[in-house]
Amino acid sequence: MKTLPLRLTPGQDLRAALEAVLVKHDVRAAFVLQGIGSLSVAQLRLAGAKQSTEFRGDLEILTLAGSLSRDGAHLHIAVADAQGRVVGGHVTAGCFVRTTVEVLLALLPEHQFAREQDLDSGFGELVIRPHSHAD
Fold first, then answer.
1. What pLDDT, on a 0 to 100 scale, did the predictor assign at position 132?
2. In the chain, what percentage of residues exceed pLDDT 70?
3. Maximum Cα–Cα distance across the chain
4. Exposed (0-12), middle (13-18) or buried (19+): which is 29, by Cβ within 10 Å?
5. Residue 131, CA distances (Å) to 25, 27, 77 in order
6. Do you know which InterPro entries this protein is assigned to (predicted)?
7. CATH number for the domain harbouring residue 92
8. Has residue 65 been placed in a domain?
9. N or C, where is the chain less crowded by C-beta within 10 Å?
10. How far apart are CA 94 and CA 15, in angstroms?
């Protein structure tokens, strides 16, 4: 495992920026160990929902965690608004950095993560395989 601290800057799409790290560092598996910072827009798929819900304003990231694979991320986040109300859910595209986001990733070069359809859950679920560096 190799750790990688990141700082994302204003306007970056949180999910897209994290997914791009795998290509940049030529790895096929990573975990977001923790993230803090702020968003101006959060697109979250709430528990049990089919579509994402948009939240706008000065949003503080209280926690961010999840897994990253070349075929998608599975990220959960909790954010608080300016009144201290907290909401959390799955991170979808369209979460934009307001001032900064600081993230600690664990890159896993010996593993390959994939998202494959699971008949029981109905979702693309994590499949973990050893990574052959000949790939």
1. 78
2. 98
3. 52
4. buried
5. 14, 9, 28
6. PPC_dom
7. 3.30.1330.80
8. yes
9. C
10. 8
Q: Does the pLDDT value for residue 135 go beyond 80?
A: no
Report DSSP state, residue 4. Answer: E
Q: Which two tokens stand for residue 96?
A: 């934009």
In a domain, 115, yes or no: no
Is 6 part of any domain?
yes
State both tokens at 70: 């070349």
Question: Whole domain around residue 42: which residue ranges?
Answer: 2-110
Give the pLDDT confidence of 81-128 residue by residue, as tens digits: 999 999 999 999 999 999 999 999 999 999 999 999 999 988 889 999
Q: Residue-wise over 45-73: b if at least 16 C-beta within 10 A, else e?
A: eeeeeeebeebeeebbbeebbbbbbeeeb
Has residue 126 been placed in a domain?
no
Band (pLDDT 50/70/90 cuts) for residue 134 is low
Q: What is the number of domains present in the chain? A: 1
Place of tokens 């950095």: 97
| 23-43 pLDDT per residue, tens | 999 999 999 999 999 999 999
Report d(CA 96, CA 131) in Å as an integer. 32
